[in-house]
Each structure stands twice: as structure tokens, then as C-alpha cells.
Design brief:
It contains 15 helices and 19 strands. With 476 residues, the protein is an alpha/beta fold. The chain has two domains: 10-230, Rossmann fold, CATH 3.40.50; 247-441, Nucleotidyltransferase, domain 5 (2-Layer Sandwich). The termini are far apart.
Length: 476
């Protein structure tokens, strides 16, 4: 089947012809992202018999109203063997298949079972990074797509194991811009330090040649942030963002710093417990008035005994002046052994086969703590040692979640987006809550407890020796 393709703009053309495994088409409204993505999907499905593709969007309603409708404007119905909108399944007469997925109702186990060649996610900025990671791991898993003889040549890629020719496989994202801390920006944008060189990225502004000129004129009347994002297609810091983390607050680990933390730091641990959601523990050191988050534990779907052992193993022989935790874990909501029981009790229960951990409830006054965090960030008085290959226990989620917190939108007034003081609930906050608890406990004006030297330790004997020498000198 021959396609007569007329691209409306340069970004459409670049995305359609990209051969990178991972590719992203970002930009403002009305620049043909969905059309270009659906056109590329249609080309792959009709060129390679028995090809499999997942086409996704965050919600089912948006998937049906936008992405699916755009696709079937391109795809002639006579090429279809069957289409079941309710089951999210389309089969072509050449045996190629589309799985239509709405990602707000799809669990990770379902995604892990996908055997596909390619994935296309529309409005990908609405999706979570963990969903992206699972889908990325499924690309190219289906190896039964057929390559037409007319395309085969000596340079066509083949499986190193079977020698079979391999169909092209792509992880394709279509998105509007978000903040610079979104996973799409970090992974794909040319200005990101985390971007991989082989990831393809293109972007475009609102194409005034597509659609109504009146709609375009009205769009320009919105507030500056809205125009920058949805008309000009620019990534940037949103007015909804609660905290701005300067690069000076993110530091690299080195042996000298870690040694100083252990020798001179006043050390603390902070816990945010989760059942199905991740459990996070952060380690802080206070040195010369600066708070340094120097270690991070972040693990979902494990029992408390697992968390206890893992946190204790990471803690080594360190001595802590305080162990703070989410006050919710101290509420007696269940019964055990004939009495009421709390999650905090479970952490300290001697019957579990792992070392006990004892916590005290932290202050959970969020609105007061936000300003304290911003004051510390402004003065670089709170720092985070970032995770690296050399230091795998450094901070990753604490940094990302702190930067990602944003206020909830109330809507628009005269084209300007209005935000309330409540935090957006859809943004992960397990590590962020640990930061809040620590800052709240140290921003109340209370003096910090000092580290106690363990009795009969080497440091204790040295301290006692110095004291005895001082007494002798004084008596002389």
C-alpha cells in the first residue's frame, strides 16, 4: 500500500523518519504530534505482517476520543480483520495487532506480560516514570514479525541467535512540555545532563497553519507560563512548583566528605513507611549548621522485617541522635496478641527475625515546613549527596521528589492558571515526606541533641583518658 504523506512541519517529518530506538516528539498544542505518531504506527503495522504494537494514553476516555480517532482517520477499515474497542484490541488482515492501553488502570504485571515490537504513548507527560520503564523493557520482545522480501538485503539486522531478520522496534513518546524535572525531560531533552546520546528528540511550537486562526489568537491571550508551555512548546519551571533545588545543593560523594560525616556529623534517620507503596528512609548529618542527606533507602512491596534488616545493615555501626518517622505509624489501628498495635510497634517488635528499630513521631506541619525548606535551599544549608556508580546509596528519589512537588490547580481565570496551597496528590512524595519530617524537627527552635559516645568504645576510652589527664594537670 502506498502512502501519500504531506508533513505540516519539520518536527513531524523528523519524528516520522527517526530510526532511533527511543524517540520523543514534544511541543505545544496543535502541532501534529498525535497525527505523526499514528501515521508512523500505521506504517509499521502495515509494512511488517504479524507486527505487534501497544498504543497508550493515561485515561481510557482520552484514548478513545483523541488517539484512537486520529489513528482510524489514517487507517482504512478494509485493512482490519477485527476491532474490539471494549477489549482494546485491533487485528489487521496481515495479522498485525494493536493493544490499546489506558495506563491509569493497567498494573505493572500486565505490562510485563506484553510481547510487542513497539510502543506509542500519547500525552506521555501524564504518565509515571515506572510505567515508562516497564514499557521500555518490553520493546522488541516479539520476534515473529515478518520482513517483506522486497526490503531484505545483506545489511538488514538479524538475530544473533537465530539469524532471523528483525523488525524495527521503537519506544515512541508524544508529549506536551512539563517541568525540567519530569522524567521525559531528564531522559530525552538535549539540555538534560542525564540524556543518552542515542535518544532522539524533536519539538515544535503550535502550528498556526493547522486549525483555526481564531483559536490560535485566543491561545496567545493566556498567561505567560501557559503560552510558553502550550504554544511555544518550552520546558521550564512552573508557577505551581513548591521548591526549586539549586545545583549547588546537589553534591558528589567523596571519601573525605563521608569520613567527615561519620567523625563529626550529628546523625539522624527519618522514615516514611509504606505498605504497597515504597518505604523510604533517609540519613541526615548536621555539620556546622548544614544539613546533609547522605544516604537513601527506597523499596516497595516488602514486609517490615525486610525493611528493618535493610535499614540496619545500611546503618552499620553509626550512632544517631534521633530517629524520626511519619506520625501516622503510631496510630493504633489494628489488634495483635489481644491488644492494640501500631506499625511503630511492628518495627520494634523483638519477635521478628530482624534487628528492631525504634522511632519517635515527627512533626507533620507541612505548610510551615515548606518555607523552612525553601529558606535552607536558598542559603544552600541543606544538601543531598547524589547517587552514583561509585556511591549507589546516595540520593535519587529525595532529589527528584523534592523538585517535583507542585501545587494543585484550581483552574483558569481570564486565561491564567490558579493554584491552591494543597499539594498535588498524584506526585510521589515518600522521600519528600522524609525531608519534611527532618526539617520540621530541626526548625522548631529546639537545640539539637548531641551524639552520645558508646560506652567502652575506642572513642569513649580516649575521651575518658583526656578527662583523667586534665584532672591530673589541674591537681598539679
Amino acid at each position: 500500500m502506498e502512502l501519500n504523506i504531506n508533513f505540516a512541519n519539520k518536527a513531524q517529518r523528523e519524528f516520522y523518519f527517526s530510526t532511533a530506538r527511543n524517540q520523543c516528539f514534544s511541543g505545544g498544542f496543535n502541532n501534529g504530534k498525535t497525527y505523526s505518531g499514528c501515521l508512523k504506527a500505521f506504517t509499521l503495522l502495515t509494512t511488517f505482517p504479524n507486527y505487534r504494537m501497544a498504543i497508550s494514553r493515561q485515561t481510557l476516555a482520552d484514548l478513545k476520543k483523541t488517539t484512537m480517532q486520529t489513528f482510524f482517520k489514517i487507517c482504512p477499515r478494509e485493512l482490519l480483520a477485527r476491532h474490539n474497542e471494549q477489549d482494546g484490541f485491533t487485528e489487521f488482515i496481515n495479522k498485525s495487532v494493536i493493544y490499546w492501553l489506558h495506563l491509569d488502570k493497567v498494573d505493572e504485571s500486565t505490562l510485563r506480560g506484553l510481547e510487542i515490537n513497539s510502543s506509542l504513548v500519547d500525552q506521555a507527560e501524564e504518565t509515571e516514570e515506572k510505567v515508562y520503564d516497564v514499557l521500555d523493557g518490553r520493546i522488541g520482545r516479539w520476534d515473529d514479525a515478518q520482513i517483506p522480501e522486497s526490503l531484505l538485503n545483506d545489511n538488514w539486522p538479524r538475530s544473533p541467535k537465530t539469524g532471523k531478520p528483525i523488525a524495527p522496534s521503537y519506544n515512541m513518546l508524544l508529549c506536551n512540555p512539563d517541568t525540567q524535572f519530569h522524567y521525559i525531560f531528564r531522559k530525552y531533552h538535549p539540555d538534560s545532563l542525564e540524556r543518552r546520546a542515542n535518544y532522539f528528540y524533536t519539538e515544535g511550537e503550535w502550528d498556526a497553519g493547522l486549525g483555526s486562526s481564531e483559536t490560535y489568537s485566543e491561545a496567545l491571550k493566556h498567561d505567560e507560563e501557559w503560552v510558553a508551555k502550550y504554544v511555544k512548546g518550552q520546558w521550564g519551571i512552573s508557577n505551581a512548583q513548591i521548591h526549586t533545588l539549586p545545583s549547588s545543593c546537589i553534591i558528589q560523594s567523596n571519601d573525605e566528605l563521608l569520613d567527615k560525616i561519620k567523625r563529626k556529623g550529628n546523625l539522624f534517620r527519618v522514615l516514611d513507611h509504606g505498605d504497597a507503596s515504597p518505604t523510604c528512609c533517609l540519613w541526615f548529618a548536621v555539620i556546622d549548621g548544614t544539613y546533609i542527606c547522605y544516604r537513601e533507602y527506597y523499596t516497595p512491596n516488602q514486609p517490615i522485617s525486610y525493611h528493618r534488616k535493610a535499614i540496619r545493615d545500611l546503618s552499620d555501626d553509626e550512632v544517631y541522635s534521633g530517629n524520626f518517622a511519619d506520625p501516622q505509624i503510631f496510630k493504633k489501628t489494628s489488634q495483635k496478641d489481644g491488644g492494640f498495635w501500631t506499625v511503630a510497634d511492628e518495627y520494634s517488635d523483638l519477635k521478628l527475625d530482624s534487628p528492631p528499630l525504634h522511632w519517635i513521631p515527627a512533626d507533620n506541619n507541612e505548610h510551615a515546613t515548606r518555607n523552612r525548606i525553601n529558606e535552607l535551599l536558598k542559603r544552600t544549608n541543606i544538601q543531598f549527596i547524589k547517587r552514583s556508580t561509585e556511591y549507589p546509596n546516595g540520593c535519587f528519589y529525595a532529589i527528584n521528589e523534592l523538585q517535583s512537588q507542585r501545587r494543585k490547580s484550581l483552574g483558569y481565570i481570564d486565561g491564567k492558571q490558579i493554584f491552591c496551597d494543597d499539594r498535588e496528590e498524584s506526585v510521589a512524595d515518600h522521600a519528600y515526606d522524609c525531608v519534611r519530617y527532618f526539617v520540621a524537627m530541626h526548625g522548631s527552635g529546639r537545640s539539637l541533641p548531641q551524639r552520645r559516645v558508646p560506652q567502652n568504645s575506642i572513642k569513649w576510652f580516649k575521651m575518658m583518658k583526656r578527662r583523667s589527664e586534665g584532672l591530673v594537670a589541674a591537681s598539679a
